[in-house]
Amino acid sequence: MDSNQRYASPKGLGVPRDYTVAARWIQKAADQGNEWAQCDLAMLYRWGRGVTQDFQKTIRLYQKANERGNALARYNLALLHEEGLDTPRNFTEEMDQLRQEADRGDAKAQYRIGKMYEDSLGVPQDYSQAVYWYRMAAEHGIAEAQYALGSLNSLGLGVRQDVAQEEIWYRKAADQGLAGAQVSVGDIEFSKGNQFEAIKWYLKAAERGDVDAVTKAGHLYLNGKDYLEAFRWFQNSAYRGDIWAQNCLAVGYFVKTEEQVPKDMRVYLSFGGCDHVVSPDPVSAYEWASVAAASPKNLAYDDLIEIRDKAAMSLRPSELDAARQWVRQWKATLATALTTP
Questions:
Q1: What is the C-alpha separation between 71 and 83, in angstroms, rounded?
Q2: pLDDT above 70: residue 17
Q3: Which domain holds residue 291?
Q4: Least confident of 146-155, 224-233, 314-323
Q5: Within a domain: 53
Q6: Is residue 73 domain-shared with residue 99, that is, in the same domain?
Q7: How distant, in Å, are the alpha carbons of 50, 69, 89, 90, 100 from that of 93?
Q8: For 48-194, where are the alpha helices, taking DSSP H only?
Q9: In CA terms, which of 76, 178, 286, 321 is 20 to 30 Å from 112?
Q10: Residue where one domain finishes, among candidates 159, 192, 227
Q11: How many structural domains are present in the chain?
């Protein structure tokens, strides 16, 4: 087998699915400078499939492919950068510096200390300490701290569960324009039966680019059986990068019956009104399965690859080339958006 040939074994096309064997062949191609093999190998290291999970190797492989101008590598590096996962951090030094700034009354530093205690970054996880620091920052008007306090009050972490305090802090943050808080206020209104008030808050958040808000607005239309309007919202959400919505489109365009869908993906078949609105379209199925599978956050990677490859088998060469071009263009566009200040 030519080591530069794209592997078949992980996908189970003609041979049993075997990530260990696949990793060996992909490694050979990656070592020869094949940029797509480098991306494939990065994904295997990201999830620990066929190799020992190694986040730093994931980064290095994407960087190598990016140096060759690979749009997929650039896209995934942008996602990792957005989450602050592409560079090592000295949390001990960071905490020492933040405490000095917080002692001088810096509200943003107080919020960041709270975040480190909540997420166990360089310190043992301590929700009581997180609440303490968040409250100081929130009382100085830091919207992110107000939102965090709302969340902890909702869950009863570090503080007695209190839905009244939850709503107070969410509304304070929402009134400052924090999209996540606006979604939460929309959720509260929906739980009270105030559907139109919920939509108002979801739309406010959607205007600020919050993907979750777009998806939730779609859910409300779906509940009201306005399937076409629901699909439009979910499609919008997919274009904005929502993994769940992308999975939905991949499945919705792939088939119309449950039996043809990988078992773990069947939940997506009726999601977003797809089963009422779209017809099977292998080109669109290939495109959305490719886009969704490219996200390092997507745990449905295996099933999406299966859908992508089955859809590809029904495409003419010209259709497959056009679909691949669309995927490359989509990823490159999103990567540019993520890396542009």
A1: 19
A2: no
A3: 241-339
A4: 224-233
A5: yes
A6: no
A7: 36, 36, 9, 6, 11
A8: 55-67, 71-82, 91-103, 107-119, 127-139, 143-155, 163-175, 179-191
A9: 76
A10: 227
A11: 3
Which tokens sit at 97? 């510096």
Compute the distance between CA of residue 136 and CA of residue 152 in angstroms, rounded to an integer. Answer: 15
Tokens matching residue 312: 């590809």
Q: 209 with 246, same domain?
A: no
Question: Where does the pLDDT of residue 181 fall: very low under 50, low under 70, confident under 90, or very high at 90 and above?
Answer: very high
With cut-offs at 50, 70 and 90, classify the pLDDT of residue 10: very low
Is the pLDDT at 156 greater than 90? The verdict is yes
Does residue 13 carry a pLDDT above 60? no
Residue 141 carries which side chain, given as an amino acid letter? Answer: G
Max Cα–Cα distance, the chain, nearest Å: 66
Most confident by average pLDDT, 150-164, 186-200, 253-267: 150-164
End-to-end CA distance of the chain: 44
Q: What integer is the mean pLDDT of 111-118?
A: 92
- Residues composing the chain: 341
Would residue 122 be called left, alpha or beta, if left means φ above 0 and alpha means ψ between -120 and 50 degrees?
A: left
Residues 99 and 216 in one domain: yes
* Same domain, residue pair 217 and 269: no
Residue with tokens 């509304």: 171
Residue 232 has what pLDDT? 77
> Do 312 and 263 sit in the same domain of this protein?
yes
Same domain, yes or no: 161 and 273: no
Indicate the pTM of the whole model: 0.54
SS3 261: coil
